[in-house]
Write a structure and sequence with these properties.
- By secondary structure, this protein is α/β, with parallel strands linked by helices.
- 39% of the residues lie in helices and 21% in strands.
- The protein has a six-stranded mixed beta sheet with strand order 6-7-8-3-9-10, sandwiched between helices.
- α4 packs parallel to α6 and α6 runs parallel beside α7.
- The longest helix is centred in the middle third of the chain and has 18 residues.
- The protein starts with 9 loop residues before the first strand and ends in a 5-residue tail after the last helix.
- The chain binds adenosine-5'-triphosphate and magnesium ion.
- The site of adenosine-5'-triphosphate has 12 residues, from α1.
Length: 291
């Protein structure tokens, strides 16, 4: 939230990466700085490099998924190439789109305990921490439930609790809601938003729900063919409707509606809205501004 700070918590400097055995780079000359406490949305069509960028933050690229990495990725002052994923996972928690693949334990409590064990938390402290972590994600009292018996949304919240148990400073979410129903989606967005707002946790999220990103994100970074092609606030990026079209991305529905009113009916003055409340204000002006 406070961009005037010293060193960014995440920095990519001239980063290119090509997966072993692949011809085309997945990331090309990426320069990107993210301040601690920022909420950054990654957008881009399939194959643009969003997942690869996220995996560079926790070191899975290049340590577990190998290839040719040039440039420098630094997270919390550490050059990721020099630290094992196990070390990085104390700083960076990562949650993927498919919650059931992230579940390895017999009960929800054990799932969270796994994260706590990795940080060397003593047993009695762990017994206190588990209910607290579950409560944070709205799974209070579910300690003994088998993860695979939970709903998709509950599983995803459990996956978040398991990484939160490690007390990461950065949470990377890779399309965390793509397999969830609308209520499950909203819960996950709500948790990430709260962690960012209340605990100053840095959030980096690849997500297609552009209306939600307009609301939560401080910054939107658009990738295309491995390059950062747009980088700015939602209000800077999302009204650029034609540019987004060319990248196979869509603007928020209210932005699109206002653009049609502006370009086809000359009924919209001023900047295009990205949030619903801004659209309502604009529509009231169009209708003669009774309020
Ligand atoms: N494990 C891998 N081995 C080889 N190539 C890979 C691997 N993972 C991704 N790629 C390639 O790297 C490029 C970037 O893929 P990446 O998965 O990072 O994109 P993405 O933006 O996350 O896409 P999506 O929206 O489909 O999740 C693509 O060309 C992809 O085919
Ligand atoms: Mg991906």
């Amino acid at each position: 939230m406070n961009p005037h700070r010293t060193e960014p918590i995440i920095s990519f400097a001239g980063v290119s990466f090509t997966y072993a055995g692949s011809e085309t780079p997945a990331l090309r000359d990426v320069d990107l700085e993210i301040a601690e406490g920022e909420y950054v949305a990654l957008l881009g069509r399939g194959g643009a490099g969003k997942t690869t960028l996220g995996l560079c933050i926790n070191g899975v690229v290049p340590h577990m998924l190998g290839g040719d990495l040039t440039g420098e990725v630094r997270v919390a002052g550490l050059e990721v190439a020099d630290y094992a994923v196990r070390e990085m996972s104390k700083i960076v928690g990562i949650v993927f789109d498919n919650p059931e693949f992230q579940m390895s334990q017999l009960t929800a409590a054990e799932e969270v305990a796994l994260g706590l064990e990795n940080t060397g938390t003593p047993h009695d402290e762990m017994m206190r921490a588990i209910p607290e972590e579950l409560r944070l994600v709205g799974l209070e009292g579910m300690e003994d439930r088998p993860p695979l018996g939970l709903s998709g949304g509950q599983q995803q919240r459990l996956a978040i609790a398991a990484v939160l148990a490690m007390k990461p400073r950065v949470l990377v979410l890779d399309e965390p809601t793509s397999n969830l129903d609308p209520v499950g989606k909203e819960d996950v967005f709500d948790i990430a938003g709260r962690l960012n707002r209340d605990q100053g946790m840095t959030v980096v999220i690849a997500e297609h729900e552009v209306e939600v990103m307009a609301e939560y994100a401080d910054r939107i970074v658009v990738l295309d063919q491995g390059r950062v092609v747009l980088n700015g606030s939602p209000h800077e990026i999302l009204p650029q409707v034609e540019l987004l079209d060319g990248l196979d991305l869509r603007p928020p529905q209210v932005t699109r509606a206002a653009q049609v009113l502006r370009d086809e009916h000359h009924l919209w003055n001023g900047s295009l809205p990205v949030l619903t409340e801004e659209a309502v204000g604009g529509i009231e002006r169009v209708l003669g501004g009774s309020t």
